[in-house]
Amino acid sequence: MENIRIGIVGLGRLGKVHAFNISQNIPGACLVAACSLDKRELEYARNQLHVEETYSQYEEMIENSNLDAVCIVSPSGFHAEQIQLAMKKGLHVFSEKPMGLNIKEIENTIKIIDQCPNQVFQLGFMRRYDDSYKYAKKLVDNGEIGELTVIRCYGIDPSSGLESFVKFAKASNSGGLFSDMSIHDIDLVRWFSGKEVNRVWAMGKNAAYPELDQVNELETGVALMQLEDKTMAILVAGRNAIHGYHVETELIGTKGMLRIAQVPEKNLVTIFNEHGMVRPTSQNFPERFREAFICELKEFVECIQKNRQSEVTAYDGLQATKVAIACQRSVDTNQIIDIK
């Protein structure tokens, strides 16, 4: 089969990861077009990735008859419209999370996706493609730890990026801490348990940058969640991990427990020096989930080639966003929120 010809919109930090992977690491795919409002990002695509066709307007890029699919890595507020436009053009779509910033636009997007059963849609929940998470999922599904009772998730960005986020938050809408970051952990809770979340209580605090209060953003947040079978989940989300990028998941069951990345280790090296015994940690998400990002795009391309749908669906995006929005509402109202 000929290579799947992909155009990408958005060449920020994550967009560059996906663009590089499509051009270098995904068999059966080629990056033929790139779209960004930033001229420097388009120069990167042309000079570093040898992309011949570059655009400043997404609508113009998807008119290109040379495209089979698009990879959407633009700011969150554009995702729903860009997914809809691409599906209507007959293109396969890989989109980063979230699908949208409100439930109505996501539901409208799903209606359009459902009208295109021969086109592949996949959402970027890359942790499902991480080897450690896949191994843990198999253990849970095989009953190795019995019935799940508690799931605990940490998702904390390195503090090195906090100052730049504050500048971003003052100018743009990230969707909030829970939609922007915890949505990955919310998806893991649903994935591991096979159950929906029906009640949340969330809270937050801005300590290092109190000015985030003025733009309704959170530096650190916590959510306690109850699932439909009364399984409990605890989320800790933040943007201020001084030691690096901290993603950790704990699964407690009636017969045992699992911990994934209990220490966010970069590798298997231990350093002994004047600071004592030191284990280097991952410093950012491209480093920690490098292979997972490659595997999810391999899956997307393979789905197109084999005419099948991805296991990560638009419905997963809808349900995770419902929970994330409920968490933010709980913070805003200081109340427990039931999810219908």
Automatic annotation (TrEMBL):
<dbReference type="InterPro" id="IPR030827">
    <property type="entry name" value="Myo_inos_IolG"/>
</dbReference>
<dbReference type="GO" id="GO:0000166">
    <property type="term" value="F:nucleotide binding"/>
</dbReference>
<dbReference type="InterPro" id="IPR055170">
    <property type="entry name" value="GFO_IDH_MocA-like_dom"/>
</dbReference>
<protein>
    <submittedName>
        <fullName>Myo-inositol 2-dehydrogenase / D-chiro-inositol 1-dehydrogenase</fullName>
    </submittedName>
</protein>
<dbReference type="Pfam" id="PF01408">
    <property type="entry name" value="GFO_IDH_MocA"/>
</dbReference>
<dbReference type="Pfam" id="PF22725">
    <property type="entry name" value="GFO_IDH_MocA_C3"/>
</dbReference>
<dbReference type="GO" id="GO:0006740">
    <property type="term" value="P:NADPH regeneration"/>
</dbReference>
<comment type="similarity">
    <text>Belongs to the Gfo/Idh/MocA family.</text>
</comment>
<dbReference type="GO" id="GO:0005737">
    <property type="term" value="C:cytoplasm"/>
</dbReference>
<dbReference type="InterPro" id="IPR036291">
    <property type="entry name" value="NAD(P)-bd_dom_sf"/>
</dbReference>
<dbReference type="InterPro" id="IPR000683">
    <property type="entry name" value="Gfo/Idh/MocA-like_OxRdtase_N"/>
</dbReference>
<feature type="domain" description="Gfo/Idh/MocA-like oxidoreductase N-terminal">
    <location>
        <begin position="4"/>
        <end position="120"/>
    </location>
</feature>
<feature type="domain" description="GFO/IDH/MocA-like oxidoreductase">
    <location>
        <begin position="133"/>
        <end position="259"/>
    </location>
</feature>
<dbReference type="GO" id="GO:0016491">
    <property type="term" value="F:oxidoreductase activity"/>
</dbReference>
<keyword id="KW-0560">Oxidoreductase</keyword>
